[in-house]
Amino acid sequence: MLEVDVKRRLGDLMIEARFSSDRGVTALFGRSGAGKTSIVNMVSGLLKPQEGHIEVDGHVLFDSAAGIDLPPWKRRLGYVFQEGRLFPHLTVRRNLLYGSRLTPVAERHLTVDQVIGLLDLDGLLKRRPRSLSGGEKQRVAVGRALLSNPRALLMDEPLASLDVLMKNEILPYIERLDEMGIPIVYVSHSLDEVSRLARNLVLVSKGRVSASGRVDEILSRLELWSPEDETENGTMLATRVSRHDAAAGLTHLEFRGGELRVPLVDIPAGVAVRVWIRARDISVATEPPRGLSLRNVLKGTLAEIGPGDGTRPLAELKLRIGEVSLTALVTRQAVRELALAPGQEVYALIKSANLDRRQLSLVAAMAAPDR
Question: Cα–Cα distance between 218 and 211 in angstroms, integer?
Answer without folding.
Answer: 7
